[in-house]
Amino acid sequence: MSHMKIRKAVFPAAGMGTRFLPATKATPKEMLCLVDKPLIQYGVEEAVAAGCTEIIIVTGRGKTTMEDHFDKSAELEASLAAKNKTALLEIARSVSKLAKIVYVRQPEALGLGHAVLMAKEIVGNEPFCVLLPDDIVDASTPCMKQMVEAFNETQSSILGSEVVEGDAISAYGCLDCTPDATNPRLLAVKNMVEKPAPGTQPSQNAIIGRYILTPRIFEMIEGITPGAGGELQLTDAIKALLQHEKVYGFSYEGKRHDAGDKQGFLRATVELALKHDKLGPDFRAWLKDQSF
Ligand code: UTP
Questions:
Q1: Is omega for the bond preceding 133 within 30 degrees of 0, making it cis?
Q2: For 257, which of 1, 42, 130, 176 is 20 to 30 Å away at the CA?
Q3: Which residues, 6+ apart, have CB-to-CB distance to 149 below 8 Å?
Q4: What is the Å distance from ligand 1's center to 147 Cα?
């Protein structure tokens, strides 16, 4: 396992997105459009920026628009080319050229751990990253790139982590951890608690939807029993992994938006629209003129 490189990124995208109903009744949550592109494209671009060359999307029923989105659209390209719309043609083409993308089905939404397990054969015996497409991380160095750099030092599993104030930590997986002596962004994980009751949290360090995992995680997922909600929880499998290997938390630089939640999605829309290089200046001017 020494000096393994991260080449593959897994995107669990087979969930039901119930928090975002009715929008997600017939449209996959991962295809909700944030400013001008679907959520999943932000994640795929982040994985590519981190050096991943193979993207594995775990899908389920009703998710085929995701495959169409990343596929070449011959009719659209021919139509834009015929009209000499070269800038738009470039946008359409660039999406299908982002990376090699493969799809694997999760027949039933049996939990995040189960979704990751669906990628076992395609990932094989190498470390890989997992990105939850509804966590959007806005950062000057893409979050997963920061994590891959840390992995290149540790060669151990790394969990993206953020400090969450007060009892808000009760909505997250929480790390029992100590700062690492060598890298101020790394946290040595001793234990993990899923959704701790208020006042019982071992720290304010929450786990977010960015992971680098060693391939032993598959064996751990296969060994756990369904936890909360009858689902195979990835957190339980990572806890089991702790018995065999070092696991680190990683305090990334950047700002995360929970775009799988309506309120989080609205905030992400405004912040990312303001930062958008083409749309931002006009949107900012328009916002200033409003008397809401
Ligand atoms: P979430 O819990 O945020 O997604 O899982 P969800 O279940 O779709 O949404 P809600 O809570 O009902 O609104 C995080 C990610 O894991 C995927 C989801 O698609 C999402 O991207 N997931 C979750 C799976 O792929 N399979 C599952 O069985 C569960």
A1: no
A2: 176
A3: none
A4: 22
- Residue 260 CA to ligand 1 center (angstroms) comes to 9
Beta bridge partners of 128: 213
Q: DSSP readout, 48-60?
A: HHTT--EEEEEE-
Token pair of 254 as six digits: 């950047």
Q: How far is the CA of 16 from the centre of ligand 1 (A)?
A: 6
Cα(58) to ligand 1 centroid in Å equals 11
What residues contact residue 239 under an 8 Å CB cut-off, 6+ apart? 191, 192
> Is position 263 within any domain?
yes
Task: Confirm whether 137 is domain-assigned.
Answer: yes
Is 229 part of any domain? Answer: yes
Pick the residue whose CA is nearest to atom 10 on ligand 1. 17
In a domain, 26, yes or no: yes
Residue-wise pLDDT for 182-239, tens only, equals: 899 999 999 999 899 999 999 999 999 999 999 999 999 999 999 877 899 999 999 9
Residue owning the nearest CA to atom 7 of ligand 1: 15
Supply the CATH number for residue 276's domain.
3.90.550.10
Position 291 pLDDT exceeds 90: no
At 82 the three-state DSSP class reads helix
User: What tokens appear for 131 in the block?
Assistant: 């990105």
Strands 173-179 and 186-194: antiparallel
Which pTM was predicted?
0.96
| CA 79 / ligand 1 centre spacing (Å) | 36
What is the extent of the structural domain holding 237?
8-289
Residues with CB under 6 A from ligand 1: 12-20, 29, 58, 106, 109-112, 114-115, 132-134, 260
Domains in the chain: how many in total?
1
